[in-house]
Amino acid sequence: MTRFKQKVWIGIGAFVLAGSQVDFAGKGAPSIDFASALAASPKEGGEGGEGGEGGEPGSRAGKDQSTVEWLTGLALVEGHLFAAMELLRAGAKDAAHAHLKHPKDEIYTSLRPGFRKYHAAGFAKELEQLAKAVDGEKGAAESVYTQVEKKINLARQKAPANTKAQLQVAARLLTDAAGDYRESLKNGRVTDAKEYQDAYGFTKIAKRLLEGAKPANESERAALDIARGVLKETDSLWPSLPGDGIVGGDPSVLQAAASRLELAASGLR
Q1: Which residue range forms the structural domain that includes residue 44?
Q2: 49 contact partners, CB below 8 Å, separation of at least 6
Q3: CA–CA separation, 223 vs 232, rounded Å?
Q4: Residues 210, 149 within the same domain
Q5: Do 66 and 39 touch, CB atoms closer than 8 A?
Q6: Pair 2, 135 in one domain
């Protein structure tokens, strides 16, 4: 299946499902293997001498990479980490590991040009610390995760986006989520829990981005109200995590939501 995205993996190897099943009541395209297409610098760049990975729908290397593309890459990292932490909190440590291992293999490499372009500090060190902290004392991972989130938010601030761009980023996340959710299903049931979890993380980060968006005028406010309402319609797609074997929902709900966000963005300047 073709998908409108770079397929992003923080972890490598087979997905191993472990831990408990926990309910989350009320929670809730063409693909390009983009990481291989980006030119990877032998050294990390950006403030603090660090650089990164990343990638996303149709992005390009170096200075040609748009702000929306780079911000989508950051958000994809966030989505993986969000899913990992939710799994860890649910007691599914092995499943969480599948989203955290070897953070510099792909996604951080394709984010690297943007770290240099926007003079943003990278967070590879923190990603590695998080992967190790998952096996440490209780609470250790939460502390490191907070630090990673701070670094990601600081990087995002180096490439400020208006409401139109934020809606476009959220739409791309939902497009990725739709493809992953579709891939997670076979005969209506979740058979690839990692894809199901990726879709969950991407959608949750799309929601977070739009919840934090600050409209500059009434047109932007109206567009955000519509988008936030659209995202609420996706909540029922994830009745539980880790999700393996459960009856799945309809991935077209996510694709339709992505299209509606794109439409909302198209009316803004």
Answers
A1: 1-14+29-159
A2: none
A3: 15
A4: no
A5: no
A6: yes
Task: Check residue 109 and report its DSSP letter.
Answer: H
Nearest to 61 by CA among 6, 2, 122, 124: 6
* C-alpha pair distances (Å), 131 with each of 14, 33, 98, 136: 16, 24, 10, 10
End residue of a domain, out of 159, 191, 224: 159
Region of 57 on the Ramachandran plot (φ > 0 left; ψ -120 to 50 alpha; else beta): beta
Give the whole-angstrom CA distance, residue 239 versus residue 249: 9
Per-chain mean pLDDT for the chain: 80
Q: Indicate yes or no: pTM above 0.85.
A: no
Chain segment 69-84, per-residue pLDDT in tens: 999 999 999 999 999 9
**Cα(47)–Cα(69) distance, integer angstroms:** 20
Length of the chain, in residues: 269
How many Å apart are CA 16 and CA 63, to the nearest integer? 38
Based on the fold, state whether residues 43 and 53 are members of the same structural domain: yes
Model pLDDT for residues 4-26, shown as the tens digit of each residue: 344 433 332 222 223 334 433 33
Handedness of CA 87, 93, 98, 99 (dihedral sign): positive
Tokens of 267: 């009316």
* Counted domains in the chain: 2
Distance of CA 172 to the CA centre of its chain: 10
Residue in this structure with the two tokens 């990292």, named with its chain if needed: 77
The CA distance from 96 to 189, in Å, is 21
Task: Tell me which residue has tokens 């610098």.
Answer: 41
Helix %, strand %, coil % for the chain, to 5? 55, 5, 40
Query: Which pLDDT belongs to residue 107?
Result: 78
Top pLDDT among 92 and 22 is at: 92
Burial (CB < 10 A; 0-12, 13-18, 19+), residue 26, is exposed
- Which amino acid, residue 40? A
